[in-house]
Amino acid sequence: MVLLKKDFINMLIGASDALDDKIDEFSDIDSKFGDGDHGVTVGRISKVIRAKAESSPEHETLSEMFQTLGKDIMNVNGGSAGPLYGSIFEGFGEGLQGIYEANEAAIKSMFAGALENIGLISNAKVGEKTMMDTLIPACETAENSDSPLPQLLADIAEAAQQGAEYSKQCQAKFGRARFHKEATIGTMDAGAYSLYCLIKGFSTAINQ
Amino acid sequence: MMKKFINDPSNLTQELLEGLTLANKDIIELVRGNLVVSKKLKDADRVTVVTLGGTGHEPALQGFVGEGMVDIAVCGDIFAAPGPESCFEALKLADKGKGVIFVVLNHAGDMLTANLTMKAAKKEGINVMKIVTQEDITTAPRADANNRRGFVGCIPAYKIAGGAAAQGKSLEEVAAITQKFVDNMGAISVSLTGATHPVTGGDLAVLDDNEMGVGMGQHGEGGGYKIPMKTADDTIALLMGELIKDLSVTKGEKLMCVVNGCGATTLMEMLISYRAAVRYLEAKGIEVVANIVNELLTVQETGGYQLFIARMDDELLSYWNEPCNTPYFKRMPTMK
């Protein structure tokens, strides 16, 4: 199977739906060790994703679509989530450079691009209770899985879920939560959770 | 239950910025929706000052835009930093040929955005130097200052930078002066009652009737510790003791002292606390030569204050005493 632009558009809508579904939960988790507005920010990011899905001009390539979307996300004025999610999407776009029909190799490149780009602004590793708990395992699975599409995306989403679950047992080392130190153990990281939901949304859209 | 005079929570920031601009039409204007710009910027022939931050803290940061302090404040959403594009536009607008000082508070969102902005600015060839404020002493030791949060200290820093710029100092000079000032300041917070997030309505912090929180953050992120309620004088003794220890302040030194009300603390309490602060320092042979006792950077309706000190000398005092005219801090030319 190859994914065409219309499939990626469905993936973006799937991601937006998945995020919209859990807005209150995101804020709830964030209120434990932050100011409880992760849902508000993710809601804004979701709107921007949907807007791009609904209005990407025909001539816009996959790479251009993700890179311009990344820039839009970066500027939602939502604290850390803007730059972080924005970098991920810009990275997706960089990984899809020159690709018009995406096969398994293209998906691997897409996720590798995200990891590389966010690495430019964040040095968080797995185990520090951040979005990276979700992203790094997802990208590793993208790289190593032999599954064909669409199963490949399901594998990636599965790794993302396990990563988000793992973030529960970590102590926060970044962001505002880190000031609560050991008290953060036992609660999932809000960003790790929302990123998992987004990736799951991608997978659900094409694994129907 | 949150009880605030607001309309639709999703329009909070827009409405508050419009209100601020309407109330101070001769000093500031609102550009591109979230840039609060000094009307003196247009004709500026000096180093200019740009800053960024979320709204929800009052009157910071946009309340200090005007002659002698901040030239452009880039406003994000409630407690949320703005994106890099507006910051980049602000830097472009602010560069009048003598360079720009970009003051950034050390919080994750602000720093992420600022670093992306600096990257874009350098690429564009904008002459900008970044100053990070990170003076909260409770989150990490001074040797690990990159893990310290930026509290109220940015406000005096704006005044110092603005004053040095007004005296015609070069970009490198203003940066060095401001950096030296921010490297020699410290702040610590004490809270009695929590506040609510104006958009979500959630509690930012919860404290029992009889406890106070020392070193809690500005957005509900906690940190610090809780202890039983003390008197005003005993609270100051505790807080000031920590501050002068952290900064290794010795007898004979001169300090700036700020009592920054966090929103629900009365002026009466701030003044009683300031009295205690001056007397505590006097007893140790330390003189307070500059001060502000007011709400500069609140946390919505938090009961409590941030106690702030900074090393002062005659040079810094001359920048501090330069005239300025912003919505919430003004200094007359004749005041010495």
What does this structure look like?
The complex is a heterodimer of chains A (208) and B (336). With 208 residues, chain A is mainly α. Chain A has a single domain, classed as DhaL domain (Serine Threonine Protein Phosphatase 5, Tetratricopeptide repeat, Alpha Horseshoe). Chain A is 66% helix and 0% strand. In chain A, helix 3 packs antiparallel against helix 4. The two termini of chain A are 14 Å apart. The mean pLDDT of chain A is 94. Chain B is α/β, with parallel strands linked by helices and 336 residues long. Chain B folds into two domains: 13-183, Dihydroxyacetone kinase, domain 1 (Rossmann fold), CATH 3.40.50; 185-331, Hypothetical Protein Tm841, Chain: A,domain 3, CATH 3.30.1180. In chain B, 31% of the residues lie in helices and 25% in strands. Chain B contains eight helices and 14 strands. In chain B, the strands form three sheets. Chain B has a six-stranded mixed beta sheet with strand order 1-2-4-3-5-6, with helices on both faces. The radius of gyration of chain B is 19 Å and the shape is globular. In chain B, 54% of the residues are buried. The model of chain B has no long low-confidence stretch (mean pLDDT 95). Classes of the chains: A mainly alpha (208), B alpha/beta (336). The A-B interface holds A 27, 31, 33-37, 39-41, 71, 74-84, 86, 121-122, 174-177, 179-180, 183 and B 34, 54, 76-86, 107-109, 112-113, 115-116, 139, 149, 197, 199-200, 202-204, 217, 219-224.
